[in-house]
Amino acid sequence: MVYYDAAETLSRVEIERLQLERLRASLKQAAKSPFYAKHFAACDFDPASVATLADVRRIPFTTKQHLRDSYPDAMLAMPLSEMVRMHASSGTTGTPTVIYHTQNDLDWWASLMARCMYMAGLRRTDVFQNMSGYGLFTGGLGIHYGAERLGCLTIPAGAGNSHRQIKLLTDFKVTGIHIIPSYALYLSAVFAELGIDPKSLSLRIALVGAEPYTEETRRRLEEIYGIKAYNSYGLSEMNGPGVAFECQEQHGMHVWEDAYLAEIVDPATGEPVPDGELGELVMTTLGREGMPVVRYRTRDMTRFLTEPCPCGRVHRRIDRLHGRCDDMLIVKGVNIFPMQIERVLMAMPEVGQDYLIVLERDGYIDNIRVKVEIRDEYFVEDMRQLGALQKRIAARLRDELLVTPKVELVERNSLPKTEGKATRVLDMRGNGA
Questions:
Q1: Residue 135 scores a pLDDT above 90
Q2: Residue boundaries of the structural domains of the chain
Q3: Are 214 and 239 in contact (CB under 8 A)?
Q4: How confident is the model at residue 124 (pLDDT cuts 50, 70, 90)?
């Protein structure tokens, strides 16, 4: 097995020893910020008292609201003059969250990202097209600097403009891309309109992330493009992309434990869950100097995978995301994640590339309606065939969800399309509940 750097070959004992050393240093650095000085004082926590990795649990969680309340710079652990870049959320729901980086932070991030890309099979001889948004969003620049650090010819295509994307892919014989899954599906329809077979490209690897998606969607993308698609995980509070990535085994994402301390907790109680059980991912930066973040509640639901990875790396793996705590839908008293619906739909060959979950209220009763695009060859005039398909989809969804949704079959391209993240849920219940 070939590795990008020595950190990938660390043993379990070496990883935990390094984590403890870096945790102590990171907490000491965090305490220099106005926010964490108060945060630690409120719980009578002294960073110097840390003797084991479990001691981090004595610190209350950091939440997105804390970051908003600290806007614009109360979480800085170094003078603003030492910062060379900031990223921010869109702020569409209120005050944005802001993350700052020193030059050392950016160099470390680029190295982690290059490590991810190398692990997935990319090399300096690859031509890499970054089809992610640049600017305040971390996905664009994070992936970009990783690709350049690896030595790839890097094309900063950015998001959208599908015809230009396809021209770049074709003219420059691109071999690797970064793309969000819903846009990859959208782009496949543009290929069809242009009469181009995506399998005719030089493309061999796609790095896919930024939004939850299912294994069924991944396999569909691999079939459409004739590639290997690798799951990735990141969030701006932990730098951005590069927090965890799949190796070529494609079974779980390795968290780079020399850079992050990961916990999985019960979202209701905050207590650790046993390995292998589903819970909320909580992350702590290990080594970021400008703005350390301690015990951050990601709201992402996943689990640790316990079996050894055949690739030889012992950095712990997390499962693909099972949705978010705050994405959970409650219909007729049943907890439902949109990912469950996608998993069922994308496994059915009759289903096209898009769907929409509509939540409705009839008096005091909540109902769920799923609008499903059907492939052209299955959207026939025979109402009996369409009715049978509709019932089959509803039955499979009922088996998965434990409630029976209304299923509405629609023609290809009849649902609203976007070149960004797809809108999957429309809540029409009036109170947003």
A1: no
A2: 1-326, 328-427
A3: no
A4: very high
Lowest mean pLDDT among 14-18, 100-104, 300-304, 332-336: 332-336
Distance (Å, rounded) from C-alpha 289 to C-alpha 25?
A: 9
pLDDT at 404: 86
CA-derived radius of gyration, the chain = 22
Indicate the burial class of 156 (C-beta count within 10 angstroms; 0-12, 13-18, 19 or more). middle
Backbone angles phi, psi at 328, to 5 degrees: -65, 135
Count the residues in the chain. Answer: 433
Helix 215-225 crosses helix 181-194 at what angle (to 10 degrees)? 30
Sign of the four-CA dihedral 235, 241, 243, 245 = positive
Report which of 268, 249, 269 is spatially closest to residue 315, judged by C-alpha positions.
249
Read off φ and ψ for residue 296, nearest 5 degrees.
Answer: -85, 125
Which residues in 79-149 belong to E strands, given as ranges?
85-88, 98-101, 127-130
Q: Pick from 378, 161, 145: which is nearest to 239 by CA? A: 145
Q: Is the preceding omega at residue 47 within 30 degrees of 0, hence cis? A: no
Using CB atoms within 10 A of its CB, is residue 37 exposed (0-12), middle (13-18) or buried (19+)? Answer: middle
Please identify which residue in the block is written with the tokens 């015990």: 295
Q: How far apart are CA 10 and CA 6, in angstroms?
A: 7
- Give the least confident one: 93-97, 269-273, 406-410: 93-97
Q: pLDDT category, 345, cuts 50, 70, 90?
A: very high
Mean pLDDT taken over the chain: 91
d(CA 379, CA 372): 11
Among residues 80, 166, 99, which one has the least CA distance to residue 131? 166
Q: Mean pLDDT, to the nearest integer, of 295-304?
A: 95
CATH fold for domain 328-427: GMP Synthetase; Chain A, domain 3 (3.30.300)
Listing DSSP states for 387-430 in one string gives HHHHHHHHHHHHHHHSS--EEEEEETT-S---SSSPP-EEE-SS
At residue 13, φ and ψ (nearest 5 deg) are -65, -45
**CATH T-level topology, domain 1-326:** Rossmann fold (3.40.50)
